[in-house]
Amino acid sequence: MILNKMMLENFRQFRGKQEIEFVSPTQGSASVTVIFGENGRGKTSLFRAIMFCLFGERRLSQDGDVKREELQLVNVSALEANPGQPIRTIVELEFTHREQTYRLRRAILGMQDGGRVIEEEDEKRLFITHADGNTQPIQTTDIEAVIDSILDRRVKDYFLFDGEKIERLTRASVEQRREISAGIRNLLNVDALETAIKAVGRLTKSLEKELTNSSHEDLSRLLKRLGDNEEEQGRSRNKLNQLADEIRLARQEIDKTDKELEKFNEIRHLLERRKALEHELHGQEQQAADALIEMRNLVCKATTLIVAPTVINVFSHIESQKQKGEIPSEIRRDLIERILSEKQCICGSEVCEGSETYSHIIDWLKRTKDVSTQDSALNLWRYLSEVRNHFSDDADLVEKRLQQYGNINSSIANINRSLENVSNQIGTSERQDATKLDEHRKKLQESIISLEANARVTQTGFEQFQQENDRLRALLKEEKLKVGLNDELSRRSILARDTQDALNDVYNQFTREIKTLIGESATQLFRELLDKDGRENLRTIIVNDDYSLQVLDRYKKPFLANISAGQRQIMSISFIAALAKTAAHGNKIEIPLFMDTPFGRLSYEHRQNLINQVPTFASQWILLATDTEFRRQEAQLLKNGGMWGKFYLLRSTIDGNTMIIDQDIDSAMAVLRDEEDYL
Amino acid sequence: MKMDGNIRVATEARYKELYNNMKSNGSVNDSHDLFFFCACIGYRNGSQVPIKKRDDRFWSRTITPREWACYYAMVLENNSFDYEKVADDKDVIAVIEGYANAGMNILIDSFLGDYLLPSSKSTDPQLDPGCCKELPKQFVHFIFEQSEPENLNI
Predict the structure, then answer these.
(1) Top-confidence range, A361-365, A605-609, B84-88
(2) Residue A228 lies in a domain
(3) Do B40 and A311 touch (CB under 8 A)?
(4) Residues A372 and A427 in one domain
(5) B-proximal residues of A, 551-590, CB under 8 Å
(6) A19 pLDDT tier (thresholds 50, 70, 90)
């Protein structure tokens, strides 16, 4: 699918008729369209317009639980300018797919009714122009099916990368795991299998419930325990989902409150300061978490310090034995024993029992160990020497890590104090409303902390139930075999449980395969996008069993906790691109790829790699960028690559709407700023 | 002193959950790390408590050579450097299990008790997952307090 053109009429902040022509690979080598504008100018609205036109959907995954009425599509100022009149909002899309050109048009009618806006579907039309030039209209009832066959609506969101999603993906949280799990589940496309698993699960449960009343006491007891445990686990799972929802809602509410607070101009600088402090706090908390991981790894190394005096003492003892020639002994123990038994020295002289020579030899024997003891003692000496040689470094490292952690914590405390101070200033503002909003915000933050703690406890409980379930299932299997397949009910119950296990195995196998596929694809992209240093150390991205992401270093050890914010961003981009590639069933993503402010924390080399590499794996790249991240340097890189074909500027008008201005690339350079402009 | 990898190392049965909790919540990397930590504390404090109810915890093959070396050193020092006492690894592990058991008791008394679910303390201690985030730091701090820098300038 290649986008050619989009026409908008009274769609959100775009008043009147406006048009964007996308550069497509069919027009030559260029495939990148840059849409440039400050925050709030409507960059995401353009992606929303495409999704609305294709699927009639006004909600994107990033909207979360924002109410439908807040996702109004009809342009507000057009409504206000024509009171009592219906306003038509239209999005028209022209795209090419497998040598056929599609023209899709979707419209809604909006009207102000008192304080609210009513929006109703008006029309949808699709025309397909075939390669031979003939145009065919498609029945309204068939349009959804035609579009779904081009792009499955379940995977549509993978083609929009937004900065927030990128940031969220590598955070170890319930939300993150849920997002990745949902992404993979959508790609699996095994609805029928899921329905079958649920149905067999219900059947198994009902049969096993009947079996609990059977005469086999142990079997009944096991079944009851398994049933109870599964119910408890289900409750834990529901609680986890509910907590994740509550956390997500609380975060959305904070964002909403922040937007409300932004209306109070006199405290805007304080709000910005608070945002910056919160960002800094997040960074420090991440550093604290990383420092804790480093300390965990240090524990096993540095524990030897506790027994340092013992290590030194035993080492010195063996060392002195070595110096005295006792280890390894100057003469072999078996030789001494032979002299004593034959009572004759190697020089031929006689060794009489009770003589001075005899007692010397006996002393000698006492000091001499057998060969294997000597070897072991020498080995021990070597290991203790190694342990001993590290004492000084380990002790330094212990002190350094504690100091480092202390510094991070005191920095967190300072930031928290500043945050409290700024929050108080916001609170003491004359605006009562702002104070209330701020209190509301504080409560939300507190509730997120407590919800997250609750989620951690619930997660541990959930895992324990899972372990118990596995154990009980194994016992049940044994018990059923012991009892035998004597009656119809037992046979049916065993068959149902086996079928459920088999279906689950198939599902898990599918999931494992797709996880591996995405992991491999993400790794390939990751290696291409990383800078030289990163490539040296970071090797593989994997999707863990619990759906969290991990990156392995060159020694195949988990390294996520130690990577920089920029590397995290590159990792997330690689993962989402891998999802998109898998969803597009190919090596090249045949669906237009939208990236909303992707450069945020990237170093210049990472930006350079992204700019050079994305056009190699995406057929069409639509880059939505702000002035702070798309500067002359980035523009020059795109231009040099020869892939950049179009530049649109989103400019605000006096009435608060947005104009789409088509500019040629050379004049675009004049609009952009240099890095120095921000210093 | 063969560093035999085929021995089942046991702890007191009531510490099973605690060992599992510590591993699963990331306070320690593996059971043998925690066992080693406890054994060193027990030995350092001259305390050895025989296990009442044994529960196999891990295979001795996970014990690193450095850890083995320290175990041998403890047994040798405590037995006037009699190499016979470290000839059989099973005997060494049996002695060390006693130190590790005592060490765990000391650990709970000194700081770990604050991180346990109150209801579990008297029976089978369990970590309170809501408040044990900083445990790795507490471990490192404990090492720092127990080590004597003046002894380390070799």
Answers:
(1) B84-88
(2) yes
(3) no
(4) no
(5) none
(6) very high
Q: How many distinct structural domains can be found in chain A?
A: 3
Q: Which of B87, B130, B143 sits opposite A398 (nearest CB)?
A: B143
| Contact residues, chain A, for B151 at CB < 8 Å | 308-309, 312
* Domain encompassing residue A330: 302-416
**Would the pTM count as exceeding 0.90?**
no
For residue A242, what is the domain's CATH number? 1.10.287
**Chain B residues lying within 8 Å of A312, measured CB to CB:** 151, 154
Q: Is the pLDDT of residue A679 over 50?
A: no
Residue A445 lies in a domain: yes
Q: What is the pLDDT of residue A678?
A: 42
Residues A218 and A310 in one domain: no
CA distance B52 to chain A (A): 26
Neighbour-count burial of A494, counting CB atoms closer than 10 A to its CB (0-12 exposed, 13-18 middle, 19+ buried): buried
Same domain, A27 and A141: yes
Burial code (b: 16+ CB inside 10 Å, e: under 16) for A12-32 equals bbbbeebebbbbbbeeeebbb
Residues in Cβ contact with A207 at an 8 Å cutoff, skipping those fewer than 6 apart = A489, A492, A493, A496
- Token pair for residue A523? 């790794």
The interface pTM score, or ipTM, of the predicted complex is 0.95
Collect all residues of chain A within an 8 Å Cβ-Cβ radius of residue B21: 460
Tell me how far apart the alpha carbons of residues A487 and B12 are, in angstroms, rounded to a whole number.
44
**Which residues make beta-bridge pairs with B10?**
B56
β-pair type (B54-59, B8-12): antiparallel
Q: Which residues of A touch B27 (CB under 8 A)?
A: 296
Are residues A259 and A310 located together in one domain of the fold?
Answer: no
Same domain, A430 and A324: no
Q: Distance between CA A417 and CA A427 in Å, rounded?
A: 15
What does the buried/exposed string (b/e) look like for B94-110 if buried means 16 or more CB atoms within 10 Å of the residue's CB? ebbbbbbbbbbbbbbee
CA distances from A373 to A205, A249, A517, B4 (A): 63, 68, 53, 15
The domain ranges of chain B are: 8-145
Whether residue A379 lies within 8 A of chain B, CB to CB, comes out as yes
Residue B33 near residue B143, CB atoms below 8 Å:
no
Structure tokens at A94: 């022209």
Strands annotated E in A352-417: none
Cα torsion angle, A160, A166, A172, A173, sign: negative
- For residue A173, pLDDT over 80 is answered with no
| Contact yes or no for B140 and A302 at CB 8 A | yes
pLDDT of residue A591: 78
- Residue A438 confidence class, pLDDT cut points 50, 70, 90: confident
A466 and A487, same domain (yes or no): yes
Of A510, A526, A554, the domain-final residue: A510
Give the mean pLDDT of A8-30.
86
Same domain, A312 and A398: yes
A483 and A398 together in one domain:
no
Domain boundary among A456, A480, A510: A510
Q: Which two tokens stand for residue A608?
A: 């350079």
pLDDT tens profile B4-56: 999 999 999 999 999 999 988 888 989 999 999 999 999 999 999 999 999 99
- Closest CA–CA distance from residue A621 to any residue of chain B (Å): 41
pLDDT at B24: 85
Quick: pLDDT tens for A316-352.
999 998 888 777 765 666 777 777 778 777 777 887 8
Select the residue from B137, B138, B139, B153 to test the A interface by mutation, using most A Cβ atoms within 10 A: B137
Interchain contact, A303 vs B154, CB within 8 Å: no
pLDDT digits (tens, 9 = 90+) for A441-491: 889 989 998 998 898 889 888 888 888 988 888 888 787 777 765 677 777
A148-171, pLDDT tens digit by residue?
Answer: 888 877 767 767 776 656 666 666
Question: How large is the average pLDDT for residues A49-53?
Answer: 91
